[in-house]
Amino acid sequence: MPKLKSHKVWLATLMVGLTIFLFTTSSWYRLMFPPSLADVRDLAEKSPLVFRGHVIAVSSATTNTEPRANNQFIANIQVDRWYRGSGSAPALLHFAYSGRIAADGHDCIDFRPETYWIVFAKNEGELDPIDDCEGALAVSPLLGPDLGNVDWRAQMEADFLAGLNDPDSEARLASIQRLGGLKLSSSREALHRVIENGDDAGSKWAVYATLRTGDLTVLPLVRQILAKGDRELPEWAIAMELQSITDSSAVPELIAILNSAPGDVTRSRVLITLGEKLRDPRAVPSLAAHLSDPDRSARYDGLDGLKNITHEPPCSLPPEWREQDIEPQIAQCKIWWEQAGKFRNWTRTEKLR
User: Fold this and answer.
1) Residues 6 or more apart from 349 whose CB is under 8 A from it?
2) Which of 8, 172, 208, 298 is most exposed by smallest CB count within 10 Å?
3) Has residue 100 got a pLDDT over 80?
4) 350 in any annotated domain
């Protein structure tokens, strides 16, 4: 299996892309998350053909002088497993590769010989990945038992679980990440074993993967990990995943994470989860505390959350608000908090207006 691309390079690429996206009115740059964060279930569900196998050979598909024609190739892939749909084995997959990491968000997949992939494909006259960057993910060569005529999710999970025993550390990490992207609760037991017995990188990625399955029991571990920051992977990914939580039982632990995390990403994601998604009154004191956050975005998230939960006019921006209205509204909300808000008993059962 090929070495997976550097997490730091992918994260730097993503941040550059975000900068371009935010500050360019007509951005040509397509924002791409690293493969370690791929949503395997979503990719499979929207793909008519899903299979895994290894590349036997790669040949040029160049037949003309059109732009990018010299980047067109055909990968001859020996199919080891069909998950959705069926086809020939080997399969001839048409693809483009730029030779650069996520170049402008296109042509990212390097189907080199003797590399192993799960491919999300379509067949419209020729077999192609559904996406030129997200249409295939590197996997371990190890396969689980053939489960026969079962749901594709179960078979895919069995194969990813087998990859946890791969002697290659990069392949094991990929298997952890793919299980996270499959988001099955049945994977939790195996992921918890990795958390307990794996190396530092494997344990952290397993925490991320477990969180993606909806298992909130790892939140105390998340708090420990994010207490050291969120600037690199997998910490950044763990922080981002906190915004996906929809279970209000997580509120106490989310508040603890918010109170201990130094990273801007973590604070932002938790503030949004507490104040926009869960809207739980128990979060009000923490949201109010972040009205004085040094990060401007966190101050706004605190204000917005207080508006959503308390409905207090001093914490509510006008309907046609502009950017310059934010800080004065925050100042009014802080006054309300000091004079009235902090004296109320903010419990989940408190009746709000």
Assistant:
1) none
2) 8
3) no
4) no
Average pLDDT over residues 281-285: 97
Q: Identify the pLDDT of residue 106.
A: 81
Owning domain of residue 105: 7-138
Please say which residue of 120, 138, 156 terminates a domain: 138
Q: How far is CA 94 from the centre of its chain?
A: 27
Q: Are residues 244 and 128 in the same domain?
A: no
Round to whole Å and give the CA distance between 141 and 54.
Answer: 8
DSSP state of 90: S
What number of other Cβ atoms are within 10 A of residue 298's Cβ? Answer: 21
CA dihedral 213, 216, 220, 225 (to 10 degrees): 30
Closest C-alpha among 22, 84, 30, 24 to residue 52:
84
Q: Is residue 307 part of a domain?
A: yes
Length of the chain: 353
CB-CB neighbours of 235 under 10 Å: 22
Spatial neighbors of 117 by CB under 8 A, at least 6 apart, are 52, 53, 54, 55, 77, 109, 111, 136, 137, 138, 139
DSSP string, 254-280: HHHHHHH---HHHHHHHHHIIIIII--
- Please indicate, yes or no, if residue 148 is contained in any of the structural domains: no
pLDDT digits (tens, 9 = 90+) for 11-49: 443 443 343 333 333 334 556 678 999 999 999 999 999
Distance separating alpha carbons of residues 310 and 13, to the nearest angstrom: 39
φ, ψ dihedrals at 245, nearest 5°? -70, 130
Average pLDDT over residues 127-156: 96
pLDDT exceeds cutoff 80 at 186: yes
The strand pairing partners of 84, in sequence order, are 50
Q: What is the CATH number of the domain that holds 81?
A: 2.40.50.120
Measured CA to CA, the distance from residue 205 to residue 194 in angstroms comes to 9
| Longest pairwise C-alpha distance within the chain | 75
Q: Greater confidence, 21 or 143?
A: 143
Residue 98: per-residue pLDDT: 76
